[in-house]
Structures are given as C-alpha cells and as structure tokens.
Design a protein that fits this description.
By secondary structure, the protein is α+β, with helices and mostly antiparallel strands. The protein is built from 5 helices and 7 strands, in the order βαβββαααβββα.
Length: 140
C-alpha cells in the first residue's frame, strides 16, 4: 500500500489548464484533467476553479452521490497546508446555509416561518370572530 501524495497549494496552482487540471475539495486534491470534457456543467465551470480550492463551488451546486463517487476516482493526493496558504473554503453541509457569525439555518427555518405565518393567521381570524361576536352582542 503506497503513501498518499502530499501536495501544497503552490503544487496545485500550477495545474490550472484544460490539459492539466487539479482541484482542491475538502483538503483533498483531485486530478480532473480527464473529466473536463465530460463535466455536465461544462468545462468552463472546472477551469474557473482549476488550481484552487473548489470546495465552496462544489458544495454550492449540491452534487449527487454519483458525482461524489466519480470524484473519489480522481484523487491525486492530500493538500499539505503551509503557512501563508489561503484559509480553507469550508462549505456548510447540503441543505444548510451558514449565516454571518457562524450560525446555520437549514430547512427547519423555512418550516418555522410558515408555522409562524399560519399561527398569526389563526390568531387574526380568532380576533376577527371575537370582535364580530362582541359587536353582534352590542347591537341586540
């Protein structure tokens, strides 16, 4: 069993063309050279992040399990972080949105919003009926 190849950002940065393309996703280095022409989103998407940390771009799209399996077949090595390297582009797991300050908001926030709207509508309807009943009682 061979050791995993360690690559630095400067190593990866030199692989940024269609004929020689490396990407960093979650601190793993992938050789996407043979996949450029096959990428469903087009080659331009890969070339825009070639030689860089593509974690955020990869996760923002919400790739399928099949895409992640294809990615596993392209591993070229691990990223060896050095002083002065850019900070990791950590993306929130699928289905969540990271807010400034580090809080995460997932699908539950949308459900809570609709629950509050329904609750507010129910309270407004109840108040309307109550006031209607009160005014009907005064006119008798």
């Amino acid at each position: 069993m061979s050791e995993t190849q360690q690559l630095t950002f400067s190593d990866v940065a030199s692989h940024n063309s269609k004929k020689d393309l490396y990407l960093v996703i979650h601190d793993k280095v992938y050789n996407a050279t043979n996949f450029v022409d096959e990428h469903p989103g087009g080659e331009e998407v890969l070339l825009d992040v070639g030689g860089q940390d593509a974690t955020e771009a990869f996760e923002d799209v919400g790739h399928s399990d099949e895409a992640r399996e294809i990615l596993n077949g392209m591993v070229a090595g691990e990223l060896k972080r050095m002083p002065g390297d850019p900070e990791p582009h950590t993306a929130a797991p699928q289905g969540t949105v990271t807010q400034p300050g580090g809080s995460s908001e997932g699908a539950g926030m949308g459900v809570m919003f609709y629950a509050l709207v329904l609750l507010g509508g129910g309270l407004a309807f109840g108040a309307y009926k109550y006031l209607q009943a009160q005014s009907a009682g005064e006119t008798k």
